[in-house]
Amino acid sequence: MDKISTPIKTKEIIEKYGFYFKKNFGQNFLIDQNVLSNIVSASKITSDDLVIEIGPGIGSLTQFLCESAKKVCAIEIDKNLIPILNETLAGYNNVEIINQDILKVDINGLINRLGEKTAKLAANLPYYITTPIIMELLEKRANIESITVMVQKEVADRMQAKPNSKDYGALSVAVQYYCDAEINFIVPPSCFMPRPNVDSAVITLTPKKNPIPVKSPETMFKIIKCAFGQRRKTLLNSIFNIGGFNLSKDQLAEIFTAVGLDHKIRGEALSIEQFANLSDIIIKK
Ligand code: SAM
User: Fold this and answer.
1) What is the pLDDT of residues 27-53, one digit of tens each?
2) Which residues are CB-neighbours of 108 under 8 A, at least 6 positions away?
3) Among residues 17, 47, 77, 92, which is most buried (max CB within 10 A)?
4) Kind plus residue range of the DSSP H or E element containing 250
């Protein structure tokens, strides 16, 4: 099937439909065939897979996905793109396009309706809502086998960062609590139309079958938020300052000693396991 993702074809389609790129929807379309093909390889999609794509745009990645997957379900917020997608994907009988905001889609309900147990997710994500989309998928425990997405390189670095590095933060801990994260490759601005101002990266998140057991993930994430909300303070002071889970400073200090944490340690030095241990003891008190 003829691909629409060359710079010339993309321009032709956009002009034909009088389409205007909307910055507020993060519309930077891919115009590089190698990058598109490499995203599909990184997703390890097979002909047995249901693939959910977030934000198909004019269908550049969707075409590649349709050629590898059993079925593709593409969710696009911009209604002006629907007639374009109906044309560019007309040659494929394994695609369904849904005109909706991804944050309002019940992913597990969708997978069930399509008669599958799980799906793989692939996307060149709209950068303005990368974190809410990823967190929604992880926290709601969507039945997703793998998530392979293009994001800003800086965000990919944060997702993969380890303790004590400058990029390590709440997003790193949240992503790595639920998933194994691996950056596949870096993509320069020249591969997009229009060009973004930053480098991008394709990252694969593979949900862990057995995440670290934590009695209350909610408490752990409250501690994590507090740890990175006040990076310059010691973790003990940060927890105490937010109300300390109704514990005195001495009680908090005792807990730190019990889990083997220096009283002066900052949140950015803790591994996920250490956040989990601390959280489990705090909720017991
Ligand atoms: N997949 C296309 C490509 O690679 O050329 C387009 C990627 S573009 C970076 C992001 C796409 O996501 C746009 O088509 C945009 O309209 C769509 N989008 C933005 N916000 C969305 C949302 N909340 N739900 C679904 N799609 C969204």
Assistant:
1) 999 999 999 999 999 999 999 999 999
2) 140, 142, 143
3) 77
4) helix 249-258
Q: Whose CA is nearest to atom 21 of ligand 1?
A: 77
Asked whether 89 and 62 are in contact (CB, 8 A), the reply is yes
pLDDT in tens, 184-203: 999 999 999 999 999 999 99
Residues 6+ apart with CB under 8 A from 176: 159, 272
Q: Which residue is it, tokens 């389409």? A: 19
Pocket of ligand 1, beta carbon within 6 A = 25-30, 54-57, 60-61, 75-78, 81, 101-103, 124, 126, 129
Cα dist. 99→21, 74, 76, 83, 143 in Å? 17, 9, 5, 11, 21
Q: Report the interhelical angle of 170-178 vs 130-139 (nearest 10°).
A: 40
* Cα within 13 Å of Cα(72), Cβ side: 29
Q: Output the CA angle 81-87-47, nearest 5 degrees.
A: 95
Query: pLDDT tens across 231-255, in order?
Result: 788 999 999 887 777 888 999 999 9
Cα 53 to middle of ligand 1, angstroms: 9
DSSP string, 95-155: EEEEES-GGG--HHHHHHHTT-S-EEEEEE--GGGHHHHHHHHHHTT--EEEEEEEEEHHH
The single residue listed with the structure tokens 């891919």 is: 30
* pTM for this model (two decimals): 0.93
The token duo for 91 is 């040659």
DSSP lists the bridge partners of residue 200 as 152, 187
Under the phi-then-psi rule, with left for phi > 0, alpha for psi from -120 to 50, and beta for the rest, what region is 244?
Answer: left
